[in-house]
Amino acid sequence: RRRRRRCPECGSGSLVEDAHYAQQQLVCAACGCVLSEGLLTTTYTDEEHLREVAYSQSTGQKEQLSRCLQRGIRRVQDLCKVLKLPAAFEETAVSYFQRALELPAFHLVSLEKKELLGGCCVLVTCRQRRWPLTMGTVCSLLYAKQELFASVFLSLQRELGLSVPALSLADLVTTHLSSFRLVQPSANIPGPFLEDKEQLVARTMAIVELASATWLVTGRHPVPVVTAAAFLAWQSLRPGPRLSCPLARFCRLAGVELPPPAQLRLKELLEILLAMASQLSWLRGFRLDKKTVVKHIGELLQHRLLLLKRAFSQQDGLEQQGTGLGMGSESQGSRAVPQQQGSPWAGQQQQRGTLRPLLPPCLLQPRKRLRAAAPSAAGAAVTGDEPISDSEIEQYLRSPEEIRAFRRAKAWS
Amino acid sequence: FKDDFSTSPHLFTPMSPYDLELPIQASSQLSESKELHTDFSSVDLSFLPDVTQDNKEQSLSEDGQETQKELDGSLPSKEDSGVFMDESSLSHPGAAEPSPEAPGVCPPLTPMTPITPATSASESSGIVPQLQNIVSTVNLACKLDLKNIALHARNAEYNPKRFAAVIMRIREPRTTALIFSSGKMVCTGAKSEEQSRLAARKYARVVQKLGFPAKFLDFKIQNMVGSCDVRFPIRLESLVLTHQQFSSYEPELFPGLVYRMVKPRIVLLIFVSGKVVLTGAKDRSEIYEAFENIYPILRGFKKPS
Question: What SUPFAM superfamilies does the entry give (chain A) (predicted)?
Fold first, then answer.
């Protein structure tokens, strides 16, 4: 029962109930004046029967980032700040992280993996922008196990279909060396050990290139190569006082870790340099060894293209290896080396006329004995349906005495 | 990796204008043009036992056409021989049964012919991958008491805290089996499909002799692993650049390059030494086919001396 109302403005009696959007309003049809707006509630009974909208049904949950995602994004941002990456990297890494976390492959993984996922996104971003961040650095920042990090990295690459360029060695040299303390004067670094950064970087790059050309880099972890190259570069720039400093001490002074493979890389580099030195006419008379050759690294690098051609037999592995080992090259008439010996080329560097081929070290010094190449002879006759003799099977069954003894010993429950 | 062929165009690029114009009867000419095959093989020396010298010469002469070689080499061998046959019949006008299109197509043929010897060279790379491991499964179709088996069998090992299966080994064929309480069994270590089957049967017999009504149902080869050596070092960093869609090379993680071939669906581990491991095959032909596909690609990275 409603009293007939009149519009307070114009006095007209034609009032219409209308909805402004979804709100009921009483409007004067003549002048448009709004008399009353819809009430928020109606009656007590209505209030009791209507149910509130649950949070899970509202859009609030979708619009708000989950706590897990928020934490993950913060971690990615923190990582970028610690690594002092450019601002644009952070955005990209966060967007990768958000995309990845939505995918079923990552949504339900353990928290540990989600933390690594953030690190992987940062790593992918850096690789794509040619910023030489190594996995080792990210793993140490996240206290991560490398195998787990590896698996998350590879699945991220696969799930998001990202193309991740390779780590650029040249960029790695520049960044790695900038963290070396030997390029800035400091209390515990002797004067003669201090080195100019530009020169050190340039020479290290040249040695790394040499290593790359002589098969020392392919398949190996990049950081030990750079460490060994930096050491040789540093020594060669001022051999006098530095030749007596071993690699371990160099790394301590520089304030970097000595990765274990670096010693082996150093040895391999020196072998290459010695082989090159043996082809440089004015150095032949010096009978250089692993220490003294360092003094001439500058010259060797200068003529490296020619020396590499001369120092190593140009025949590729294919012609050399009749049986898969580095045998003597027929064209140079060197003596045949029996297969049993581990490294036919080790002692022959400086002998004229016996040049070793330019091959990866794993081919020059094979560690495994080649197994007999004909196991198929025995296996070929097997059809899979041969009769199986009882005696053969019985050899695998325990006798009653054995069982008794075992029972006593093991006390089966 | 999805089987999305559109992302691997170079594996399926047709050798235009050939594929469009080749009549279907090209394949029927295979048997007829056998003689032509031998005629043509005066240029193709792949039947010689030592392939090395010949391939070296060919790779030197085809320097400019190396990418073409890769394209051809990656095509499945059947298609190659089909094209090959037609080419030979077309390039020998006096041949027994030239295809109807021969007169029109002949002129553009000659510049393409040097490519075919490379293709057939890859068909017979001279290297056969050796099978190293076969993984198979079989259903013994009966519930097993693993503690009982471990107690009564000499060659069994059972540590329920570590793994919920009995590990059993036999000497001939030298294999290992994982036997689960559900009656399912996994057999690994055999060097051939037949050996794997024989070994699985022997394990089933052992279980039978231990008093369980074991059967031998649904024997299936699940995975085959092969390996071989191409005998020259490979620049993995270059391979990953040219075949980025299929390769993954992370020296910080693993020294080898992981190549996921789409057809056949095989994963290859390629190492700097030239050793290649092929895995993921359900049939040995997949391993052979995968190697024949990868060999020309790897040859492209061999430095001519």
Answer: Cyclin-like, Zinc beta-ribbon
Q: What tokens were used for A20? A: 């402004």
CA distance B182 to A226: 54
User: Tell me, what DSSP letter sits at residue B226?
Assistant: E
d(CA A153, CA A120): 5
For residue B90, pLDDT over 50 is answered with no
CATH (domain of A31): 2.20.25
Chain A partners of B194 at a C-beta cutoff of 8 Å? 379, 382-384
A105-124 pLDDT, tens digit per residue, is 888 788 888 889 999 999 99
Rounded mean pLDDT of A125-145?
91
With contacts defined as CB-CB under 8 Å, which chain A residues touch B201? Answer: 384, 388
- Shortest CA distance from A149: residue in chain B: B253
Chain A residue at shortest CA distance from B247: A163
Is B299 touching A (CB cutoff 8 A)?
no
The domain B230-304 is placed in CATH, from the list 2.40.50.140, 2.30.110.10, 3.30.310.10, 3.90.870.10, at 3.30.310.10
Rounded distance between C-alpha atoms, residue A379 and residue B247, angstroms: 34
Please identify which residue in the block is written with the tokens 């390059």. Answer: B257
Closest by Cβ to A412, choosing from B151, B195, B241: B151
- Per residue in A10-41, pLDDT (tens digit) is 888 888 888 777 778 888 888 888 887 766 65
Q: Could A363 and B274 be called an inter-chain contact, meaning their C-beta atoms sit closer than 8 Å? A: yes
- pLDDT score at A48: 67
Q: Do A393 and B229 touch (CB under 8 A)?
A: no
Give the nearest partner residue to B232 out of A146, A222, A316, using CB atoms: A316
The dotted CATH code for B135-221 is 3.30.310.10
Rounded to 5 degrees, φ, ψ at B223 are -155, 140
Exposed, middle or buried by CB within 10 Å (0-12, 13-18, 19+), for A86?
A: exposed
Rounded Cα distance, B122 and B4, in Å:
25
* Dist. CA A110–CA A67, nearest whole Å: 15
What is d(CA A356, CA A329) in angstroms, rounded to the nearest whole number? 8
Closest CB from B198, B251, B302 relative to A219: B251
Q: Do A404 and B220 meet the contact criterion of CB atoms below 8 Å apart?
A: no
A355 domain-assigned: no
CA-atom Rg of chain B in angstroms: 25
The pLDDT value recorded for residue A23 is 78
The ipTM (two decimal places) reads: 0.73
Reported as a single tens digit per residue, the pLDDT across A278-324 is 888 888 777 788 888 888 888 888 888 888 888 887 654 444 443 33
Q: What share of chain A is helix, strand, coil (3-state, %, to 5)?
A: 55, 5, 40
Comparing CA positions, the residue from B127, B225, B239 lying closest to residue A219 is B239
- Interface probe with B: pick from A316, A364, A404, most Cβ of B within 10 Å: A316
CA distances from residue B78 to A122, B72, B85, B112 in whole angstroms, order as listed:
46, 12, 11, 19
Query: What pTM does this model have?
Result: 0.68
Contact A150 B152 (CB under 8 A): no
Residues B145-154 as b/e (b if ≥16 CB within 10 A, e otherwise) read ebeebbbbbe
